[in-house]
Amino acid sequence: MDSSEIRTRFLEFFREQGHAVVPSSSLIPDDPSVLLTTAGMQQFKKYYTGEADPMRDFGSRNTASAQKSFRTSDIDEVGDERHLTFFEMLGNFSFGGYGKTEAIRFAYEFITDAMGLKISYVTIFQGSSTVPQDEESRAIWQALGVADIREEGMNDVFWGPTGSSGPCGPTTEIYCKNAAGQDIEIWNIVFNQFFYPGSREELLAGTPDKELQPLATFGVDTGMGLERLAMASQKTNTIFETDLFAPLLALLPRELDERKRRIIGDHTRAATFLIADGVRPSNRAAGYILRRLMRRVFALERLAAIPPHVIGAVVHEVIHDYGDAYPELKREGETIRREFDAEREKFLKTLDAGMKEFGRLPAVGATEAFTLYQSYGMPFEVIKELDPQKTAALTRDAFDREFTKHQEISRAGAEKKFGGHGLVLDTGELKAKDEAELEKVTRLHTATHLLHQALRTVLGDSVHQMGSDITAERTRFDFAFDRKLTPDELKSVEELVNQQVARDLPVTKAELPIEEAKKTGALYFFKEKYPEQVNVYSVGDFSKEFCGGPHVTHTGQIGHVRIVKEEASSAGVRRIRAIVEG
Q: N or C end of the chain, less CB within 10 A?
């Protein structure tokens, strides 16, 4: 059974069981506490907490999806037999529609009947000082005829919240064998019985000042990796031998060692999906992750003398293999190819110089590695690939500490010069070459806050910022929205912005701890990582956002705002360009 059929069979099985099949959400999440979508349940988080109504949105309390997912924590491990960055998570979810009995029975029937696989064993939660053992799940599995039931602890079978807080509860896992006879976990069924007002790490550490709170509605959240299910179904030894990867790796030179083949296959596939969802290579947030992946591929390409068209063929194969399930890949095909070509050209201009500098160094530790990154754009992964012996003492933690240290130095210098904004005259967001341009940029920056709120007022609260770029000539604002704006909508947005300019509203700043700031209802850029203390800028009674400035002191200083263009930026993302006059 090929992977496409497995995906379809899973969704159809749950459709027949009364589940609404929901399309995958973007890899760029609505959840501000995470950088990228890491699990299928993320788009459903608000239904578990009662913030949203599944009957209104889906016509059912039960849903199923095949979700695009990405985990940055595994980047350094990619190349072995099991780690990936991008993967697909098959899942069924219930928001008070059913409980443990139905969830376990559905899983058992799908694995044994629909897939024809044998379950090796299952796990249940053994209990802790605060949560009892899951005897209910044990009894359900026994009634279905599963004899091998193993108990495990909170680190393994108690699911913590995704992000900074959320639903959590005990889990039960299903294991099947691959072709090598190894038992592999293919499915994890989470029973969301509690809410924890903190992170998974805090929960596992047993933070004393926070307690598990029972959820008003019992929830079911399951996740099954398509890659692992394909391995079990197709009887392969590793995920890289399944039809999800074999066609990609077959395009690479046979003489290339297996680890590097897997890295190129994984990173190219992941980068293709990220670009299709609107991410662009940069030195910030998700763009930084994308750049790391692409540059590692290009470094391996250069070191192994692989012609560029080979990676192009891998990209083409990804689009071809996944395009029916994820139409955005076909729709953004030309953009994806263009971004690969542009980033390769940009990186290779400095890679050779960086490799020469690397060659002159007797050893490379964190300080030398950061210099190579800063001067030649060489990410940690690329540096490690160049010479494992020379970089033996270089660790990810040490590199990240060096990275953070330099960020803090830069931020301190910028705050001293620009009143706390943390920006220099040429950053990814604001650009100004002198004090005169900085004055214009400051007006445009405050205007962008007004524009953001005006869009939400006219189009609805689903609008949220995806990025911005401000020069002395204009502001460019990207926001999540799934269609072209009508002329009337654009006119309404522009008029609403200029009404606030005419009101000459005061622009005020409050410095608050980040959790307290979030409670004010201020908007914030969900792809950004914020410090413990943040500045909340309010424009009268109209808008409130996390920001650092620079800002005007009252809106009358902005001048007349005019929208000059509205266009598509990428799938599900629109772009507005605006100027200030006067």
A: C
